[in-house]
Design a protein that fits this description.
By secondary structure, the chain is mainly beta. The chain contains 2 helices and 23 strands. Strands 11-13-15-17-21-20-19 form a 7-stranded mixed sheet, with no helix packed on it.
């Protein structure tokens, strides 16, 4: 009998080495929250060269950040037939600081019926004071009652308006009226416009008028018996302002070559170096040059604050503005 065939010993199956699980990726660090946008602009379209008082009385960033924004829906239709030609208005109640977004080229008026003379303060987007609740230094008295400040918006930007009760007390009765119109916006096509057409009623002839030009060469005739604020834009503009009352006007030709026509002789003209805006504009700028000139000489006592005008046409001759004594 043959011997039995031996059963082969099975080869042991090697135990697989377990693959280690990958380490979990570290969670990404949370992105830092973006810093809030500053409430105040760095530069001012109205006071490009602030003096020491402009800087001292500038609105604080912390206060500007807490200002109450005015909802555009707060504006409704203004009463028809008003002297300035306002088309919309918002009436607000309550003391405090309001933030109001302006549209470039629109004309605005901020007023309050409160009798305390320091009740109303208007700051531009950079926080510089434009109006401090008292009459302009160029005037015998404020031209509007109650307290009021009119402003042609040179940029799409905010203004801050503070209203308060006597002594700075909090009150729900203090009011702020904001009125506006877009009739002052001229556009880029050349325009020939007489600002005497703005407003309605018997008081329209003395109501502040405004015009904001564009790229076209405009010819603008100001109201003789009223304050005027005229911005020419980028065209070669001709601005006629023959005053007939003691008023304070602002004329800014903008870019290009612009001409201002007045109704008095060159021998009567006087120039004073000042800043164009703010309650402290008569003081020397802080370490820099002035940004405007005050032109006087009309027998009615009117003053025209002039910026960016290259040529001045008097009743007797035409001169380069830079050749006037006092420039």
């Amino acid at each position: 009998t043959p011997p039995p065939t031996p059963t082969p010993t099975p080869t042991p199956t090697p135990t697989p080495t377990p693959t280690p699980a990958p380490a979990p990726a570290p969670a990404p660090a949370p992105a830092p929250a973006p810093a809030p946008a500053p409430a105040l602009a760095v530069h001012s379209a109205y006071i490009p060269k602030p003096n020491g008082y402009d800087l001292e009385w500038r609105l604080l960033e912390a206060d500007a950040a807490k200002a109450r924004p005015v909802d555009p829906k707060a504006f409704g239709a203004a009463p028809v037939g008003n002297a300035h030609g306002w088309t919309h208005q918002a009436r607000l109640l309550g003391s405090g600081l309001y933030r109001i977004e302006l549209t470039q080229g629109y004309f605005y008026r901020f007023s309050s019926s409160n009798e305390w003379k320091f009740n109303l303060t208007v700051y531009d987007s950079a926080g510089y004071q434009l109006y401090a609740g008292v009459g302009e230094l160029d005037r015998l008295r404020p031209l509007d009652d109650p307290l009021a400040y009119e402003l042609l918006a040179l940029r799409d930007a905010a203004v801050f308006v503070k209203v308060e009760a006597s002594g700075g007390a909090t009150s729900t009765l203090v009011d702020l009226l904001v009125e506006t119109t877009g009739a002052s916006l001229g556009g880029d096509a050349p325009r020939q416009i007489d600002l005497a057409t703005q407003g309605q009623g018997s008081a329209a002839a003395q109501a502040h008028a405004a015009f904001f030009g564009g790229a076209g060469a405009d010819r603008v005739i100001g109201k003789p018996r009223a304050p005027n604020t005229i911005f020419g834009g980028t065209g070669d503009d001709v601005i006629e302002l023959k005053t007939a009352a003691k008023t304070l006007s602002r004329v800014d030709g903008g870019l290009a070559r612009d001409t201002l026509i007045v109704g008095f002789p060159s021998s009567a003209a006087r120039l004073t170096r000042i800043n164009a805006y703010g309650p402290y504009r008569h003081l020397e700028p802080n370490g820099s040059k002035h940004d405007a000139h005050a032109l006087s000489g009309s027998p009615d006592g009117a003053i025209i604050i002039v910026r960016s005008i290259e040529q001045l046409q008097f009743s007797d001759r035409t001169m380069e503005f830079k050749d006037l004594p006092g420039y």
